[in-house]
Design a protein that fits this description.
Blueprint: H1 2-19, H2 23-37, E1 44-47, H3 54-63, H4 67-76, H5 82-93, H6 95-102, H7 109-128, H8 133-138, H9 145-152, H10 159-174, H11 178-193, E2 196-199, H12 210-219, E3 223-226, H13 229-238, H14 242-254, H15 258-265, H16 270-279, H17 300-327, E4 342-343, E5 348-351, E6 354-358, H18 376-391, H19 393-405, E7 406-407, E8 409-412, E9 415-418, E10 433-435, E11 438-440, H20 442-458, H21 464-478, H22 492-497, E12 498-499, H23 508-513, H24 518-531, E13 540-543, E14 557-558, E15 563-565, H25 575-578, E16 583-588, E17 591-597, H26 603-609, E18 615-622, H27 633-654
Parallel strand pairs: 1-2, 2-3, 3-7, 9-13, 13-15
Antiparallel strand pairs: 1-16, 4-5, 5-6, 6-12, 8-9, 10-11, 14-15, 16-17, 17-18
């Protein structure tokens, strides 16, 4: 047994020796890693519930929730006015667009270039001070790496060198590379401002362009994603789940965002449009008119066409939902097979023991004797739509990225990140879920949810695992014990068809975690931390999913500061309900700060008028001492690496492994 362990370690050290083939190389890396451990903890940026609002997302990503503006103010407050600093900050956020606006205004363009470059270098020097020189070098843009390295690490107190570096900038300007250099510096500042970006769910739906958000996330240097229920809905659609496809289209059309599907992903809704124009031509669609979150040139005919498509896909969805529920009894969702519960003669329905009148019973494709059966035309429409979703190259690329960078939950630096909830029962215990002949709860249930979600996309096509995984992705979207959804039901059917007031009851997790009795909330947090192996004193839960109604006085920091909810209404559809346009969280070496944001008008106005998103910074948990890399998860990984390298040095020293000089 000892021989096996020794052999395994020797194999590992031989592999490590390929990377560090000499004593000098291994020693140098140990010194480098030990230096990194003593650096201040780099900044983490948390965002949630983006809901397709690409303009606001791009701006907040670019300004790092105000971090970059803070650095500009700190470095340049004594030499620039407030308006000049705002202009420089806008140049950093939008270098290409802002350059095009500013250059024509300059009387002496070369002098302006020189001044801007010096100022950007000053900001970049401060940003780089948190990192080792080797770390910064790895992030320098190709083509400018050597020059930037020289400029960022120049000693400006040396006048000769000051002259030398001034000549470098003059050369950059003379050969016509100033624009490219400014853009490269701005992008480097953005990279250095945030070491890691955390997206706590719901990139999709409501807003018009989630595809733009995902393109930007794919280009980001370091990101992780915790899936939201709107995300898994699209993941299921990309996997070919007819229920998820219908659900995605239903939500998208309800907000009049067909461009998300058609322009963003090249998926034609023409089969649905043609079907709806014929079959639903004389049908009441008054309850299906789209919600308009912003002004636009919408003709009555266009809105009516969208309403017909919306009702057509909604009816298909609720048929598919009945079929999915019946083939998955473990979902325990029989009470949600609502289309089959309609009394078409009396035009009533019984829900949870109460009879309601149907406000809309005009279903041209529903056979009252077999309400869940799809017509031949509906089958054809759904087949064509599913094929389009599966074959969308861009959607496939984005969904694979969501799987590669995403998970149900994530733990980093004593923070537990998840979108919805850790499902609890009415007694506050971890809810027990029966699935596949086994019982799950707490962390084990969330791990199983992730495994099944991955099967829904990656299991062999036409296999039983793939089919069950596809159905489970729909369950994660709206199932009663879904940790991503966190409610007992999705009451879409009731809101569209039933005359009455209906609510979606939140999982008891929220009742306990937000309990007015702080001891109850703290006890719940404590048990969740124990379940996930986290220390109560130093850890936090970071949630999204449920918008914080700031306009009603609701606070995003709960449970004695242990729970932070950062869904403050990023989506325009939520602004009136929340009173703000979202929360973001910044974790730096100085502690945690929550940023609340005012609505973002437009990218064009931000560039033209140097308008930043107005944000309020609340440092609600300052660190008693500055946090260093050695205090983080990355520090633990680096210490492990140092230990391995020391073993390699010992192997070199005793002759077990020879140097490859």
């Amino acid at each position: 047994m000892q021989k096996t362990a020794s052999t395994a370690e020797e194999k590992f050290l031989l592999q490590l020796a390929k990377e560090y083939p000499t004593v000098a190389a291994a020693s140098s890396e140990i010194i480098n890693l030990q230096a990194i451990l003593r650096l201040p903890k780099p900044t983490e940026h948390f965002m949630s519930d983006l809901h397709g609002e690409s303009d606001a997302f791009t701006h907040i990503l670019g300004n790092a929730s105000g971090v970059i503006r803070e650095k500009v103010d700190r470095v340049l407050a004594n030499e620039m006015t407030r308006s000049e600093r705002a202009e420089l900050a806008t140049l950093i956020y939008y270098p290409v667009q802002k350059l095009a606006q500013l250059k024509p205004r300059q009387e002496d363009l070369d002098d302006w270039y020189r001044q801007v470059l010096y100022r950007l270098i000053s900001v970049c020097r401060m940003m780089s001070s948190k990192y080792t020189r080797s770390f910064v070098r790895k992030r320098l843009p190709q083509g400018f790496a050597y020059i930037m390295d020289e400029l960022l690490h120049a000693h400006y107190e040396d006048h000769d060198k000051g002259f030398y570096y001034g000549r470098i900038l003059d050369s950059i300007i003379d050969i016509g590379r100033a624009d490219d250099f400014i853009i490269a510096l701005a992008q480097l500042i953005q990279k250095l401002a945030v070491y890691r970006l955390h997206i706590v769910g719901d990139i999709f739906d409501r807003g018009p362009r989630p595809d733009i958000i995902l393109d930007e996330l794919m280009a980001h240097h370091s990101v992780d994603i915790q899936w939201g229920n709107h995300d898994v809905q699209w993941m299921g659609a990309a996997a070919g789940s007819a229920a998820c496809v219908a659900s995605v289209i239903h939500v998208t059309l309800s907000y009049n965002n067909a461009e998300t599907i058609e322009d963003g992903y090249g998926i034609s809704l023409r089969p649905l449009s043609q079907f709806a124009e014929v079959v639903y031509k004389d049908t009441d669609v008054s309850g299906f008119m789209p919600k308009l979150t912003e002004a636009g040139d919408y003709s009555p005919a266009d809105l009516m066409r969208t309403a017909r498509m919306h009702k057509a896909i909604a009816v298909m969805l609720f048929k598919l939902e009945c079929r999915l529920i019946h083939r998955n009894p473990e979902f325990q969702m029989n009470d949600r097979a609502l289309l089959e519960k309609v009394d078409f003669v009396r035009q009533t329905i019984v829900i949870n023991g109460t009879e309601y009148h149907m406000k809309d019973c005009d279903f041209p494709t529903v056979d009252p004797q077999h309400p869940a059966e799809l017509t031949a035309d509906e089958h054809e429409v759904l087949d064509r739509l599913c094929q389009s979703f599966v074959q969308s190259e861009k959607l496939a690329r984005h969904v694979r990225f969501l799987y590669a960078k995403g998970s149900v939950y994530h733990i980093e630096n004593n923070n537990l990140l998840f979108h919805g909830a850790v499902p609890l029962d009415e007694n506050g215990d971890f809810a027990k879920v029966e699935y596949g002949g086994k019982t799950y709860s707490g962390r084990a249930w969330m791990d199983q949810c992730e495994r099944l979600a991955r099967q829904g996309y990656f299991a062999p096509r036409e296999s039983e695992a793939h089919r069950r995984g596809q159905d489970f992705l729909y369950y994660l979207w709206c199932g009663p014990k879904s940790p991503i959804f966190g409610r007992d039901c999705m009451a879409s059917f009731e809101h569209l068809f039933v005359d009455g007031e209906f609510s979606e009851t939140k999982n008891p997790y929220y009742l306990y975690i937000e309990n007015e009795d702080e001891s109850v909330a703290l006890d719940t947090v404590r048990r969740i931390f124990e379940e996930f192996g986290l220390d109560f004193e130093t850890s936090h839960i970071i949630n999204g999913h449920v918008p914080v109604r700031a306009s009603n006085g609701e606070q995003p920091v709960k449970a004695g500061g242990k729970l932070i909810v950062i869904d403050g209404g990023f989506c325009k559809a939520y602004h009136q309900r929340t009173g703000i346009a979202g929360y973001t969280l910044v974790s730096s070496s100085r502690g945690l700060s929550l940023r609340s944001h005012e609505p973002f008008e437009s990218t064009q106005k931000a560039i033209a008028e140097n308008l930043d998103i107005l944000s309020t910074k609340d440092v609600f948990e300052p660190s008693g001492k500055r946090i260093y890399v050695e205090d983080t998860d990355e520090g633990a990984r680096l210490r492990d690496r140092i230990g391995d390298l020391k073993k390699l040095l010992a192997a070199y020293a005793d002759g077990t492994i020879k140097e490859q000089a």
